[in-house]
Amino acid sequence: MKDEFSDCPFCKPDPDREIIIENDIAYATYDKYPVSKGHALVIPKRHCGDYFDLTYEEQSSCWEMVNEVKEVLSKAIKPDGFNIGVNIGEAAGQTINHVHIHVIPRFKGDIENPEGGVRGVIPKKRFYKSNIGQEQESVPLSFLQSKHQILDLISRADDDDETKRLISKFTGIKKDRVPFYLKMDEFDEILQWKLRGQYNRQYHNIKRNTEDIIREVTQAAFSIESTDFESEIALTLKTLIKLHGVEVPVASAIMTLCYPDNYCVIDFRGWRQVFGKEKEYANYSTKEYIKYWSIIKQKAEEFGVTLQQVDMAIWQYDIEGPQT
Asked: Residue 104 in 3-state DSSP?
């Protein structure tokens, strides 16, 4: 039978994991999933899930080690500041049931606006100075703080390479195929990329599309122009959903892979992160897409990236969930 500590990564750390400092009561090591360069953890050796259950001696030893780690990091990487914190309990984001104190070096420019620091654990409460005397409202996508963060999230996505391949492919095709349209195999590639495991369940509808139908509908959709871009989006979506097996989410994927600067993919993960709640029903209206698109567009313009990149970063952020 396993004892309760046998699977604890802090009771039995990987032998290859670098130990920064160690004494009889605690040790310090680098976080396996750092939020910044030099992100370190101070960990008591005795297995204990709640910081407040540590003895006074253990607490004191840990905080002395925090000071020592700070000195080591200051000499090694010369940060401009630090965040120090402990997650205590599931509601506070603790996912490993062994006390650990985060020592996080900070650097000027690592996020757009560092105001509020650790208050950022409740994102809408972080910018307290600018909200004094005003009712604080939730800011959509406040967790996205820099272009670097967006690109880093994308790099961890399991379909990053395939997404880049498809975008590159359609960029090349658009140069030679005027007016632009999709062939059946290209349409199928997009559906497999978007639907993943649901593709086979949708296949009976998808196969009803002929080569001629796909060409006619996609050429018509991509030829739509309007001085009002939101009207253009709505008309393009309504045209693409004439294809069998295509609703707004798949239509948005077709638009995004072919024109990543202009569009984003809508789905339940993105909706949850943008609006802070689950979608009440599975499908999306054109009006809902435009509402979602406008928020993604603002973030893309703020950080100088494409709408597709913001959308993909949100997807990956939702998959990863809160990190300790």
From this structure: strand
Distance from the first to the final alpha carbon of the chain? 29
Of residues 98, 100, 102, 148, which has the active-site annotation?
100
Alpha-carbon gap, residue 12 to 1, rounded angstroms: 17
Distances (CA, A) of 256 to 222, 293, 312: 12, 11, 11
The class that CATH gives domain 19-110 is alpha beta
97-110 residue pLDDT tens:
999 999 999 999 88
**Which amino acid is present at 216?**
E
CA triplet 317, 148, 302: central angle to 5 degrees?
90
The answer for residues whose C-beta is within 8 angstroms of residue 133's C-beta and 6 or more apart is none
Ranges for all domains in the chain classified under CATH 3.30.428.10: 19-110
The structure's pTM equals 0.59
- What are the Cα distances from residue 10, in Å, to 1, 5, 126? 20, 9, 31
Q: Is 148 among the residues known to form the active site?
A: no
